[in-house]
Amino acid sequence: MKTLNPKIWVNDDKLNPDIRKNLLQIALDFVKFVKLKRLKIHDIVLTGSLANYTWNDRSDLDLHIIFNLSNFERHRKFINEYLQTKKAAWNHGHNIKMAGYKIELYPQDMDDSHSSSGVYSIIKDVWIIKPQLEGHPVVDKNF
User: Fold this and answer.
1) Are 40 and 123 in contact, with CB atoms under 8 Å apart?
2) Helices and strands, counts by H and E, the chain
3) What is the DSSP letter of 116?
4) Neighbours of 122 (CB within 10 A)
5) Is 44 exposed, middle or buried (0-12, 13-18, 19+ CB in 10 A)?
6) Computed from CA positions of residues 15, 21, 24, 26, in that sequence, does the dihedral angle turn out positive or negative?
7) How many of the other CB atoms lie within 10 Å of CB of 87?
8) For 84-139, how does the pLDDT look when each residue is reduced to its tens digit (9 = 90+)?
């Protein structure tokens, strides 16, 4: 694709304000669903093909809720496993779509690595890693 998805983005630069507001609400609903009072949100980000130029009709919105789990240090592994279980239950029980795309929610410890060529902070409303539109391949017609 030559542009970011126009249903999600405004001028390839900013997340659509209605999409942003709804994604924030979904993330906060998940945090309430988890029921851990000392759970601290570090950031909420959008990644994947819809935060990049690689989107298509079968893409989904990859919503990562990044937690600071330092106050659970002694039980960090257990809390991570608990969050993954809650993620599976949430994603199974919620068939939420926005702009025609399914939302996949991912809890993530801020110390865990996740690589993507497009990462948008929904909290700060800015690109953390802005995707780059790569040139089209050159086809040698004389081959």
Assistant:
1) no
2) 2, 8
3) -
4) 21
5) buried
6) negative
7) 19
8) 999 999 999 998 999 999 999 999 999 888 788 899 999 999 999 999 887 544 44
